[in-house]
Amino acid sequence: MNSFNQxxxxxxxxxxxxRICQQAAGGAAxxxxxxxxxxxxxxxxxxxxxxxxGAAAFGVxxxxxxxxxxxxxxxxxxxxxVGVIPDTLRSxxxxxxxxxxTDAAVLPxxxxxxxxxxxxxxxxxxxxxxxxxxxxxxxxxxxTVQRVRQLPYLRIDGVMAHFxxxxxxxxxxxxxxxxxxLKTTRAxxxxxxxxxxxxxxxxxxxxxxxGSRLDMVRSGIALYGxxxxxxxxxxxxxxxxxxxxxxxxxxxxQVRTLEAGHGLGYCHQFTTTRLSRIAVLPVxxxxxxxxxxxxxxxxxxxxxxxxxxxxxxMNLTLxxxxxxxxxxxxxxxxxxxxxxxxxEISADEIADWMGTISYEVLCLxxxxxxxxxxx
Length: 375
What we know:
Blueprint: E1 6-10, H1 11-25, E2 29-30, H2 35-39, H3 43-51, E3 58-60, H4 63-71, E4 78-80, H5 89-94, E5 98-101, H6 107-116, E6 121-126, H7 138-150, E7 154-160, H8 173-185, E8 197-199, H9 203-208, E9 216-217, H10 231-236, E10 246-251, E11 254-258, E12 263-264, E13 270-271, E14 276-281, E15 298-301, E16 304-309, E17 317-320, E18 333-340, E19 343-345, H11 347-354, H12 358-367, E20 370-374
Parallel strand pairs: 1-20, 2-9, 3-4, 4-5, 5-6, 6-7, 7-8
Antiparallel strand pairs: 1-10, 10-18, 11-14, 12-13, 14-17, 15-16, 16-17, 18-19
Helix pairs in contact: 11-12
């Protein structure tokens, strides 16, 4: 039996977004990020869609995700982006994954494990060119390259870095990061490595930072239909626009008629001021529909907006449907995220209500609910 709460992922939207990213990338290869279960859209299903479009590689956070992709038949290079520790090295080598090295200290053990399997491991070095979060510092870069070349069974296939502010088109930071990255990686030529893959651009870099496409771009949020700078990005973008791929729906399970002065839900955070029709929805914070949305969010019923009233609980949410054009009945569809008729509620809008970003909304909804791929 299916849950009332369903996340539906549009294959056609994923394809549309991939083609937009491909066009923006020019001749650069595309590495879709499918970590966090494809930003809540389904890692394996999305990887298969993107592989069919010619994706050059895939990005995951942890080795276990890469192992799952290999088991699902994904043959492209899979980069383990968050870094590696000795405990994960065997799984990485066995599955033929590409480790992203953030610290030279792991290199001797990686070499030893690769030798156990009698295989050469191609790795990427992560350079901290200004992100300030993880990676080899520019002053350590040449020593790290030299250390890789000294150790058997290892080779350098690429160097990457990450933009911290590419979602801000006005920031000067991205130009500084790009400059640091390019200047630091020039040293590769001294070791005959000037042909290795350089990649820096995320979705923000792809769309907003000139000169950052390099050999490969790491598209993430854009593939799932959202701009890295949120609603402003969509407003300022030239067509064709990205298409949100996720839709989150539930059903009405009860409709109640209540007199004025009736307190609703925990702590009576909302009290009716008139004769009201209140629809009860079987969704709550267990499903990623967080309590912060109480008395803030809107949903779509009959293609019209209706306000969430009272405190959202673990499995129940109340909606005031008094002002809708026609009576609401149990069993009818309610859209929490996505389009119904001419109206749409986007992850950017929900993120604004929650005080966060679209990425978090998509991960919450997609990873906490039953999910299916639709055309």
